[in-house]
């Protein structure tokens, strides 16, 4: 099993099942003791903002705010630099614990030994 999991989620409310799957896998991995780095890109970028995850609904899925809290408790959440800029989101706007970083950092994390990368 990989010692680290890097997950990039590109979907948001536009593809709720895919979005929920990414957050669920990240939270389950953290609960299982895996080091997790969750990347918010594309439409999932909005979930870096306070309150936005509470607006997300998907029947029979764990609440997105709970999943985000779980990931932040034992892992890392990163908002894509370009995605943030396109949405005029800055570091002062995001949930505490969310960082903003670019593709170079994603590639570096994804290519680390004993790391599995997933894209949703």
Q: What percentage of residues falls in helices of 4 or more residues?
A: 25-40%
CA-based gyration radius: 13 Å
Distance between the termini: 20 Å
Strand content: 15-25%
Class computed from helices, strands and strand pairing: alpha/beta
Strand order of the largest sheet: 4-3-2-1-5
Number of strands: 5
Summarize model confidence as the mean pLDDT. Answer: 97
**H and E order:** EHEHEHEHE
Using the alpha-carbon principal axes, give the shape.
globular
Q: State the helix count.
A: 4
Largest sheet: 5 strands, parallel
Low-pLDDT segments = none
Structure characteristics:
globular; five-stranded parallel sheet; alpha/beta
Quick synopsis:
The chain is α/β, with parallel strands linked by helices and 120 residues long.
Textual characterization of the structure:
With 120 residues, the protein is α/β, with parallel strands linked by helices. The two termini are 20 Å apart. The mean pLDDT is 97. Helix 1 (16-31) packs parallel to helix 2 (64-74). The protein has helices spanning 16-31, 64-74, 81-86, 103-110, and strands at 4-9, 35-40, 76-80, 98-101, 115-119. The longest helix has 16 residues, at 16-31. Strand 2 (35-40), helix 2 (64-74) and strand 3 (76-80) form a beta-alpha-beta unit.
Summarize the helices and strands and which ones pair or pack:
Elements: E1 4-9, H1 16-31, E2 35-40, H2 64-74, E3 76-80, H3 81-86, E4 98-101, H4 103-110, E5 115-119
Parallel strand pairs: 1-2, 1-5, 2-3, 3-4
